[in-house]
User: What shape does this take?
Amino acid sequence: MHDISNSGLDSPRAWVIVFAAFLGAFVGFGVTYCFGVFLKPMAVEFHVSHAAMSVLFSTIAGLSFFLAPFTGDLADHYGPRPVVAAGAVLIGAGLILTAHADTFPLVMLTYGGGLGAAVACTYIPSVAAVGEWFKVHRDIALGIAISGIGCGTLVAAPVSAVLIEHYGWRTSFEIFGWVSSALLLLCAALLARPPVASEKKKVSIADKLRTRAFTLMYVSLLFCGIAVYVSFVFLPAYAADIGASRVAGAALIGYIGAASVIGRLGLNALAPRFGLLTMYQFAYLLLLISFAPWLAAQSYPWLVGFAVIMGVGYGGVAAMAPAVASNVFGIEGLGELLGILFTGFGLACVVGPPLAGVLVDRTHDYKWPVFVAGAAAALALAVVIPLRRYRAARAELMGASAD
Assistant: This one.
């Protein structure tokens, strides 16, 4: 008890760190996941295909995940504050320069590179800081911090639609740039190293990466990511195609964000009663089921149903994946393992949206993204089911190490 109170762990100052991390996730992923709202007006102005716009989204989301191991390492060495401050500068400069860009390759650099690097500088360093500031209430603190993703998605998508309606996409980007930069500078100012720095041991995770359990988790997250990111990119355009307004289409992304908070907190809370792995697999099942109303959609309410069910499933997967990984592989080297595991989402960004975009361009039919995303969700569920056999994988790993 005295160690916690004297060190500042689990203290009121620690909860300020949680707020800062929540704010970082709110801004970074809120701006990223409202991309679908900007897809049509930007594609029309720059005369580019859906495939090209999908590559732009893949650049943003891919960089967010693939750069995270490097920004996390920088935060380990220099603390989270300067790294997140760099993210604040990058997001402001990237969005404001995009507002004045006159060619699509420049947009790829400013919007794709700037926003992707900014999220990488913000998310992992701030969330890692939360983990280091807590000992007793670490799980709930991390849950609150990560729920910033869903809340940011809930707010940013409809706000961006309203701004585009009134001011156009360029002015909307300028507003987003200045506001996002200011909020991330506040996030950086509130962050700090933990009062007692814990020594981080170098642990080899090579044996864990070679197991079938790791392969199953990685591939399931890859297919889950394809289902999620194809939906984020094409759902607003699909809604417009069946007659919904821009604001209504953007609201669907907000519904996904709100429902994902329910999934992150609700499904996770049921895990002690029904079993962590059971609830994790149930989240994948919900993700698959959600595509039934989208496939049947002839009117807007069907799309709302899809958004809510998909959001709960996606939120549950994202929230429980770290706990499942620690349950299967143990906590030794968990940070490094999770960093590698979540590059599956980065790969999903590179593969899913561009594939769906090519199919839309060739067929002029917005049903193709539904088929791609639904098939990916089915494959994700099929791959995650055998994971139940590997709950005792640590024994297998011990044996491999002894050999």
Summary: The chain is about 85% helix and 0% strand. The two ends are 41 Å apart (CA to CA).
